[in-house]
Write a structure and sequence with these properties.
Largest sheet: 7 strands, parallel
CATH topology of the largest domain: Rossmann fold
CATH architecture of the largest domain: 3-Layer(aba) Sandwich
CATH class of the largest domain: Alpha Beta
Radius of gyration: 22 Å
Number of domains: 2
Strand content: 5-15%
């Protein structure tokens, strides 16, 4: 018997909500959990609206902890008799040690399920979760369209220099907002997508009306015939894609196989004045490699636009922050109102199925 099975689920299972859905989606999500028979405890650390904080505190038990610190999450479990489930949106660090402590039968109700309203699970030790009998739920595809939209937006900013022109105008320098920033069109650009999942496909669909030529390097199962249905050109190697495209956009999960997939060598393959967009995971394209490539006169890379960083959820630091040839976004690709509602609804369905089984 696994640790999480060593004690039966209580009649009224309790769920620790590390970060509720943002804004107007928060109350429906929490009410949905209650309707499923769960008793929510809500962490208010990332809830900034005072009216919403008051409403949540009035209806449910609330706490205030740093949800990006595993020790704080474990302490919340130990101080409140444990929880049957944990719900989150962000990439909270659930390591092997964290899972061992959260499922310890001596700490009250051991954790049985983690539900994440997102698709990326790279911050969880999934092997440890399985070994400890913890079911991990997620919402793959729910925010694919939203991430694809930001990806296109970052491409357009890099091509047209929107953020740089805005900064120059706010500084009162009209000429700087016009001169020295090359302007290119997405139409007739060749865009290479690394990855063939839901987000990459949504990006390809949104690129078509712009008149861009799309190349795709997909998973081993992704074939030239699959690419025809996007439509896109199938490429067989990373080098072929990176040497042949004006814009390279990354759409693969962070795994042992993809960590450092693009480094100094691969960045030197890129065309002069090329653009790299990363809305996937920072581990796939390390920030220090991107910064070094942008500063290397022999490297063709001209601009980098990223929505993901190695350090998130705390005070922001990145070597890219001081580089003028970058556009930085704080991992908000999937955080549209519509995507958050869809993720919450999908997650509630998955949680319902978990308890029904």
């Amino acid at each position: 018997m696994t640790p999480a099975e060593s004690r039966p689920c209580p009649a009224q299972p309790r769920v620790l909500v590390i970060d509720p859905a943002p804004g107007e989606s928060a109350i429906p999500e929490l009410a949905g959990l209650a309707e499923l028979g769960l008793t929510p405890t809500v962490n208010l650390r990332r809830v900034t609206d005072q009216n919403l904080r008051s409403e949540i505190s009035r209806r449910w038990h609330s706490i205030d902890i740093d949800g990006f610190r595993a020790d704080d999450i474990v302490a919340a479990f130990e101080n409140h008799g444990g929880y049957d489930a944990l719900k989150c949106r962000a990439g909270i660090p659930l390591t092997r040690g964290a899972f061992e402590r959260l499922t310890a039968s001596t700490r009250g109700q051991p954790l049985r399920m983690v539900a994440k309203a997102a698709s990326g699970l790279d911050s969880f030790d999934l092997d440890a979760a399985a070994e400890r009998g913890v079911t991990v739920l997620s919402t793959p595809g729910a925010n694919a369209g939203a991430v694809a939209e930001l990806t296109i937006g970052l491409m357009l900013d890099a091509l047209r220099g929107v953020a740089r022109r805005d900064a120059a105008l706010r500084a009162g320098d009209w000429r700087a907002a016009i001169d020295g920033i090359p302007v290119r069109s997405l139409a007739d650009s060749r865009v290479g997508l690394i990855g063939s999942g839901a987000i990459a496909r949504e990006v390809a669909a949104r690129l078509a009306p712009f008149g861009a030529e799309v190349w795709v390097l997909g998973s081993p199962r992704f074939t030239a015939r699959d690419a025809e249905h996007w439509p896109a050109r199938w490429t067989g190697t990373l080098r072929e894609l990176m040497t042949g495209c004006d814009i390279v956009s990354v759409h693969v999960p962070s795994t042992a196989a993809t960590a450092g997939l693009i480094g100094a060598r691969e960045l030197r393959w890129m065309k002069p004045s090329s653009i790299l967009v990363n809305t996937a995971r920072a581990q796939v394209v390390p920030e220090d490699a991107l910064d070094a490539a942008l500063r290397d006169p022999e490297c063709g890379l001209g601009h980098v636009a990223v929505d993901v960083f190695a350090t998130e959820g705390t005070r922001f630091t990145s070597p890219l922050a001081s580089n003028p040839h970058t556009t930085l976004s704080p991992h908000v690709g999937g955080m549209t109102v519509q995507a958050m509602k869809a993720s919450s609804a999908q997650l509630l369905t998955e949680i319902s199925r978990f308890y029904a089984s």
